[in-house]
Amino acid sequence: MTLSIVLVVSAALFCIGLLAALSRRHAIFILIGIEMMLAAANINFIAFWRFAPQPAPPTGVMIAIFAIAIAAAEAAVGLAMVIAVYRHFRTTDVDQLNRLKG
Amino acid sequence: MSTVAFSIITILTLAAALAAATLQKLMHAALSFAVMFLGISALFFLLGAEFVGLVQIFVYIGAVAVLIVFTILLTRHDTEKVRGFNWSGVVVALAVFGGLMWAMENTKSLLIGPLQIKPLTVHRIGELLMTSYVWPLLCIGVLLTAALIGALILVMEDKRE
Questions:
Q1: For residue A54, what is the nearest residue in chain B, using CA coordinates?
Q2: Which residues constitute the domain of residue B152?
C-alpha cells in the first residue's frame, strides 16, 4: 500500500461523485455527488498526513474533521432547499427549474 | 496495514459509490450511499485516523443518510418517475479521472510506503482543538448555528398566502 494507490482510490471516488453531480437530473443525487467529492478530498487529507515524513503535526486530520462539519451543514441546507423547491414547484427535477421568477 | 483489507474495502467502497451514482431508485441509492461511507470510515481506520472514521460514521450514517431518506420520503410523489441520464457527464468524469491519473503518473515522489507513526489519540486531538485550532472551532460553531437557522427558515411554512 503506497500513497499513490490511496490517491487513485480517492480520484476514482471523486470522479464517481462528479458523474453523479453532472449527469443525474434529480436534486438529491446532485447532493449525494457533492458529498462523495468532499469525502474523496478528506481521504486525500488523511492519506497525506499518514504518509508524511514523521513526526508531522496532525494538520490533515484536523482539516478532515472541519471538512466533515462543513459538509454536514451543507447537506442540511441543501436538503432543506430541495424540500422548499419541491413545495413551490412540485418537482425536484433540476431541468424543470428554469424560471427565476417564482 | 494489510493489502488484503485495503483491497476489500476499496472494492466495496467504489462499488457502493457507483451504485449510489447510477441506481434508478432513489431509496436504493441512499442506502448504497450509507454503505459507501461505512467503507470510507474503514479506510480511515486502516490509515490510522480512528477518530475521523468514527466522526464520519456518526455524522454521515447517523445524520446525513437519515436526512436524505427523510427528504426522499417527503418528496415521494416526485421520486417515482424514471428520469433521463445525461451521458456527457460520463465523458467529463472520465476526462477528469484521466487527467488526475496522468498527474499522479508523472509525480515520482508518491511511491512511498507508510512509515511508523505515533498513534494519534483523542486526547491530543482535543488538546489541539482547544489550542491551535480554537478559532476554526468557534467559526464552525457559528457556521453550524447559521446553517441550522437557515435550514429551519427555508422549510418553514409560508403563512402569508
A1: B117
A2: 120-161
Q: Is B58 on the interface with A (CB under 8 A)?
A: no
Query: 0.80 exceeded by the pTM?
Result: yes
Class of domain A3-89: mainly alpha
Q: Each residue of B47-63: pLDDT tens digit?
A: 888 899 999 999 999 99
Does the interface predicted TM-score (ipTM) exceed 0.95?
no
Q: Exposed/middle/buried for B130, CB within 10 Å: 0-12, 13-18, 19+?
A: exposed
Between the CA of residue B14 and those of A10, A62, B127, what are the distances in Å?
Answer: 9, 25, 35
Q: Helix, strand, or coil here: A26? A: strand
**Residue numbers of B between 21 and 40 with CB closer than 8 Å to A:** 21-22, 26, 29-30, 33, 36-37, 40
